[in-house]
Each structure stands twice: as C-alpha cells, then as structure tokens.
Design goal:
Elements: E1 10-13, H1 18-27, E2 60-63, H2 64-98, H3 122-133, E3 136-140, E4 144-148, H4 151-160, H5 172-178, H6 190-205, H7 211-229, H8 245-253
Helix pairs in contact: 7-8
C-alpha cells in the first residue's frame, strides 16, 4: 500500500504501550491493514515515511472495521463502569440523609463501615466518631446501626421513650440459622415482651434488686472465696467446697 494513508479507515493508538499492544495483536493473529494477514502489520517509529502507515508515526494502526467496533465496546464498558462507580459514591455519600438516619462516616458498598473500625481499641474509635459526628451517629456494620454515645440522648431514648425503641433489628444470621429472631436478646414482638416480663418477675421473686438478699449473697460468696484462698493456688477438687454450709445456704436462697 503506497501513498498517504486514508485516516478515515484507520484508528491510531498513541502512547508508551504501543509495543505491548502490537505484541498482543500479533499473538492473537489479528488481521492487518489489508485485511489479509499479520505479516504486513507494521509500526513506523523512526522514519515517519509515507510507506503505507508512515503518517501514523509512533502510532499503532488497525483497520477501522475491526478497531472501531472494539473501541466502541471498550469505551462503552469503561463509561458504564465509571457511571456505576459515580452512582455508588453519590448513593453511599448521601445514604444516611436519604434514609433519615443520623450522620456518620460514609459506608462502602456491601461491607459498610466494617473496614473503618479497628479490631482493638474500638471504644477510642467510637469516641473519635462522637467528636466528629455528635453524640448520635450511624455506623453500617454492614446494616445501619445507630450508636448513642451521649448520656442525655441515652436517657431520652431508653428511659423516657423506651417503648418506642424497644424493638430489635432483623438480623440476617439469625434468620439463616434459626429462621427468625428468638430469645430475650433478639425477639421484637409480643412474645418477646411476655418473656421479658416473666423473666423479670421471676428474678424479683428470687430477691434480685432487694438490698437484704444482695448483702446476704455477697457475704456468703465472700466466705466461699476465703475458703478457696486457703488452698494457696493449688489445683483442688471443687466438690468438697460445693457442699460447705455457706454454699448450701446460698443455693437455698436462690432456689
């Protein structure tokens, strides 16, 4: 092919990766500028002569019917990925405001704020977040969790408006393992309230919260501990110590 190259039939790729791009197409036996084979596929880096692709100079040229389609597909994928990334960033940045939640650190998709929380000294990190976002803020771990780190807010939500905040969140792990939230720590319906009422009533009947019973239990526990201290840290059999009068009296108080 001689004369000037008709640029409307070719797509050129400038840059430092020309050689790597050329090798990639050569290994895959991509058609040349004549549409026949790869032997005539050349890159003019030095002379810049008008010898078929001389006007490309330091460019790697491919036939337009091949490269144009591939570039459109490539650019389409890049644009779609870029659009999704920008959309996710905007969504994550404004997610708390959109859901009406207190402010908090921007969560990452899927993992939330889990990667932003340390495994140790978590309390120090919570105090730092309190200084930055206030006494009430939101953490995604990965579900949205409202953290109350202020005494007045805690008193208002737990004591004054306790009934409004008495529910429990739906935990996916509990749904997966047990088919729902059950027990005093996870249930959120009337069954949970009846269980909680029964438990508190039974504990009060056993003397929980009464000063006299509390003092007696503390005294008997201290006497049992004193007996154990006389062993000087030796490995012992606990069964004899579980039959002493102090322990028996302690068990009778809680029976």
């Amino acid at each position: 092919m001689s004369g000037r190259l008709r640029t409307e039939y070719f797509i050129s790729f400038p840059g430092k990766l020309i050689q790597k791009i050329q090798e990639w197409f050569w290994r895959r036996k991509v058609v040349n500028q004549h549409g026949r084979n790869r032997k005539h596929l050349t890159v003019n880096r030095e002379t810049g002569r008008s010898d078929g692709i001389g006007n490309c100079r330091n460019h790697f040229c491919l036939p337009a019917r091949f490269s144009l389609l591939s570039n459109l597909l490539t650019m389409g994928i890049i644009e779609i990925l870029l659009f999704i990334a920008i959309l996710l960033f905007i969504l994550c940045y404004n997610i708390n405001r959109m859901l009406g939640l207190p402010p908090g650190p921007t969560p990452w998709p899927i993992v939330g704020n889990v990667l932003q929380l340390p495994m140790i000294d978590l309390d120090k990190r919570v105090l730092e977040l309190r200084k930055q976002y206030g006494g009430v803020f939101t953490l995604w771990i990965p579900y949205p969790t409202v953290i109350i780190a202020e005494h007045e807010a805690l008193k208002r939500t737990v004591v004054r408006d306790g009934d409004a905040y008495a529910g429990r969140p739906s935990i996916y792990l509990m749904e997966l393992l047990f088919g729902g939230n059950y027990g005093l720590s996870f249930e959120e319906n009337d069954w949970y309230r009846s269980q909680r009422r029964f438990t508190l009533h039974t504990l009060r009947n056993l003397g929980v919260g009464k000063p006299i019973i509390k003092d007696t239990i503390t005294m008997l526990s201290n006497r049992t501990v004193d007996l154990l201290r006389k062993t000087n840290g030796r490995a012992i059999e606990l069964k004899p110590y579980l039959t002493v009068p102090e322990f028996i009296q302690f068990m009778q108080l809680t029976d």
